[in-house]
Design goal:
Blueprint: H1 7-34, H2 40-44, H3 47-51, E1 53-54, H4 56-62, E2 64-67, E3 72-76, H5 85-88, E4 92-96, E5 100-110, E6 115-117, E7 123-124, H6 132-141, H7 143-150, E8 160-166, H8 174-181, H9 185-191, E9 196-201, H10 206-214, E10 222-225, E11 229-238, E12 242-251, E13 258-266, H11 268-279, E14 291-294, H12 307-316, E15 320-322, H13 329-338, E16 341-345, E17 360-365, H14 373-381, E18 384-389, H15 405-413
Parallel strand pairs: 1-7, 8-9, 8-11, 9-10, 14-15, 14-16, 16-17, 17-18
Antiparallel strand pairs: 2-5, 3-4, 5-6, 5-11, 6-7, 12-13
Helix pairs in contact: 6-7, 12-15
Length: about 425
């Protein structure tokens, strides 16, 4: 007898129910239905919506603003080695503005991503990574969020007495959390009083909570966001410490389709602060190999198909393979802070190179190189960067990779 519902649908229902309850399930169902009536272009052409957006300069003038640290010039050199065009396109100098945080009174938090509205119900773009296109993407994917925003003037909402700092990462990913969100807390930690609570996603993953604990926050300092709309007496918005710029248009050789290369630039000062804060609260008695291989076998994408052959020489020369999902956040920080040489396929685990002091990063790339994130991050942090391009059977970026074992050995042997 056939199952009444597809197994995948049942799994998705259980996952959603366990994380957000029946209200979350119903909201997700409503989003699925309403997506048929809302498109990305609808929001781009909505002049009323565009006029209600408050950009970074508007925010700095709107509330009580505190600047800290300094402007920062980031140079991506790339002169030490021959780079493929996808990487060489990133070279140049970038300027990051002086970071700040702004406190606003009588603000409202709306939707699943915690978009902040000021007392005039205008959207604070900095609360959704400072990206206008991301706001439109969110509203088109989650129309219930848009309807909550549109009805914010009319829904009775008793103000919550809490003073909060929304830290609801749009992507809900480890990379984005470490790369985009945690460095924003520097000014908060150094200048703001202790009465503020951190607003995070409901049912947060362990690494999210552990990272905040290591920064000195307690479980009482964290508030899980499980509402669609809530007014707060005071909201603090830390500025983003990253910029994303369009660098070049490329054509994929296999599919002949055009795509855009972007540069993701982040604050070295922010990462240095983050590493220092975390390391000051980490036990010093844990030992890891200084020669590290990062495994992706736990996620089953971009794994090394010929691993035993490709890594044989590395194993013989002191390299140890680690599966990061088996490690606590604290252990991941310890592992990378102690590393001298890191070998890994392209993946979120390489975000942890922000915790390394001086190391060599060898990234194993697939045939289709479209995200030079960790080349740029290595340059920002002052690490030595190497790469080797393996082969993939299809044009899909997550396909397993076959690496030239001899080429990998020669590349690393020259640096040891």
């Amino acid at each position: 007898m056939d199952e009444p519902f597809p197994p995948d649908l049942i799994r998705r229902f259980e996952k959603r129910y366990n994380r957000t309850g029946m209200a979350g399930v119903l909201t997700s169902a409503a989003d699925s239905i309403l997506r048929n009536f809302f498109s990305h272009d609808n929001f781009y052409s909505n002049s009323n919506l565009k006029n209600s957006i408050k950009y970074r300069n508007d925010v700095r003038q709107k509330g009580q603003t505190e600047f800290y640290s300094s402007h920062e010039k980031i140079k991506i050199d790339g002169s030490e080695q021959r780079l493929p065009p996808e990487l060489s396109a990133q070279t140049g100098e970038y300027m990051l503005e002086k970071p700040f945080f702004t406190e606003i009174e009588d603000g409202t938090v709306v939707g699943s991503k915690g978009i902040v509205l000021d007392s005039s119900k205008d959207i604070i773009l900095e609360s959704i990574d400072g990206k206008e296109w991301l706001l439109y993407e969110n509203f088109s994917k989650k129309p219930v969020d848009f309807l909550s925003y549109m009805s914010s003037d009319y829904l009775p909402s008793a103000p919550n007495e809490l003073k909060i700092i929304p830290l609801l990462d749009y992507y809900n990913s480890y990379h984005s959390w470490v790369y985009h969100q945690l460095p924003r807390l520097q000014g908060v930690k150094e200048y703001l009083d202790d009465n503020y609570k951190i607003l995070i996603r409901s049912d947060p993953p362990d690494w999210m909570q552990e990272s905040l604990y290591l920064l000195g926050f307690s479980s009482q300092d964290l508030v899980e966001w499980d509402s669609r709309i809530q007014e707060f007496n005071k909201i603090c918005i830390p500025s983003m410490r990253t910029i994303e710029t369009k660098r070049a248009q490329k054509i994929d050789e296999k599919s002949n389709q055009r795509y855009t290369l972007y540069s993701k630039i982040a604050s070295k000062k922010g990462f240095n602060w983050l590493r220092g804060e975390l390391m000051s609260n980490i036990a010093k008695n844990k030992e890891f190999s200084q020669r590290v291989i990062i495994s992706r076998e736990d996620v089953n994408t971009r794994t090394i198909q010929n691993k035993n052959q490709a890594y044989h020489w590395l194993y013989d020369h002191g390299f140890v393979e680690y599966t990061l999902s088996d490690l606590s956040f604290e252990d991941q920080v310890s592992l990378f802070s102690n590393a001298e040489y890191i070998v890994s396929p392209h993946g979120a685990g390489l975000t942890n190179i922000v915790f390394a002091k001086e190391c060599t990063v060898c990234e194993i790339l697939g045939t289709n190189i479209r995200k030079p994130t960790y080349y740029i991050l290595s340059e920002i942090m002052g690490h030595q960067y190497q790469f080797i391009v393996g082969t993939q059977q299809t044009n899909h970026r997550d396909e397993d990779i076959v690496v030239d074992a001899g080429g990998l050995k020669d590349l690393i042997q020259d640096e040891l």
